[in-house]
Task: structure prediction
Amino acid sequence: MDSLDLQDIQGIIARGYGNLNAAAYLLLHIQDATLTKPWLAKLADQVQTSQDRPGNRCLNLAITYQGLAALGLPESSLSTFPTEFQEGMTEPNRSRVLGDHGSNNPQFWQWGGTHPAQPTVHLLLLLYARDDRQLAELVAELVEPFPASGIKLIGKLDTQPLKDEQGGFREHFGFRDAISQPLIEGLHPSRAPEHTIKAGEFILGYPNEYNLLTESPRVKPELDPHNLLPLGEFGSHDLGRNGSYLVFRQLSQDVVGFWRFLDRATQHADGSSNPDARLHLAAKMVGRWPSGTSLVQSPDGDDPSVGDKNNFAYHHEDAQGLRCPFGAHVRRSNPRDSLGPAPGTEQSIAVNKTHRLLRRGRTYGAPISDSFDPDEILTAQSPGERGIHFICINANISRQFEFVQHTWINNPKFSGLYDETDPLIGDRSPGKLGNTNRFTEPACPFRNRTHELPQFVVVRGGAYFFLPGINALRYLATLA
Ligand code: HEM
Result:
């Protein structure tokens, strides 16, 4: 395999910047591309690469299809991008695939949606710093030249500190997150073959899990007279090499609704709360305990000593889903070795490797309870807005992100289940997918069923972005 050109690959692919606790995302609209291109040329020098660990702060940049068009990329190149990127996240057929109807409908989104009054998102600046003060300085420095660079700031999406007091990354329902990530071959030390994925699944220009090059956008040689881009297929120049795609979804979490529902569903006969049963049902829905411990490894109770363990599979350990239900969020979003036609084999893992996601999101909105204590959450007075800025990186949006969202998370017919979606984040819109508001836990002698799950997660915004290599960014800044 070619060694990875780390100098040219944006740093967010190699790392989640765990040392940079503060982050913000700026959504930008290009008003005058002739002014924006010199700004972009300068910014390209500041973009963090995958070569080095960042110091106190860093930035990355991603561009929508409309952003590429606004910069002047000609139609002959725009048309070489994959259809899902060209159409964008809110195209009606994509909304159907993603479950974006009902309360998720893009017409209600706060950004990136279809409401005519919303400005089109062209650029996404991802900013990271060690602390809030350094982040504020970075934001101020970057925003200052926007008016003179023909750029309008559409929105600033803030995030919560990455790590809680225990040094873990917790999402708002109270569960440790970002434990299970794919390891990129040639980039991350390969400790676990089952999680080690060919670079081409996440970076364009390298072989993917099919030993092929993932489709990459191109430009005609005459449009790159200074040969800024490497040679690509069919005598073209390769605009995609060392780039990828970044999927962004702002997902709002109804944390009070989540714990109230679980409390009601598990009450004792006299109507009093049953905290153990409540936690147990929550863990069954996630597939991990709050510390992160997998239900496969510790089915009866949390064991924080193995909270960060990821060396488990499902078929041999838990073929019937008695430990981790088939419908649990983590088992749906990564079924590991349980995919047919030969579950439990190398072949099953090989299929699974073609649908992995590199998650890089962060939470937003203050937690209701700093200790994530369900009893405190249940009595919260002013719930407020909070959730996850879900970010994932993949070389093929349709085969990776869209497949996971559509065929696993929101599929009522998944792994022998036939009438339910992901209990944590699934779409429950009536009428579209049938009755999808229940959750099944396989158990002996009888399965347990929880009914009438409300929708706990609602989409507030989102877009598909191209995450170019650094050379490609420089090329885009030279467009006529
Ligand atoms: C508010 C929304 C979400 C919440 C609260 C949430 C929560 C979690 C939690 C607690 C974990 C376990 C930690 C870990 O295994 O790393 C997890 C894992 C995961 N989630 Fe989510 N998630 C959300 C949205 C999504 C979405 C939209 C997707 C993809 C479309 C997704 C895909 C995954 C994947 C692939 C894993 C790793 C599973 C594994 O490899 O075992 N999540 N999530």
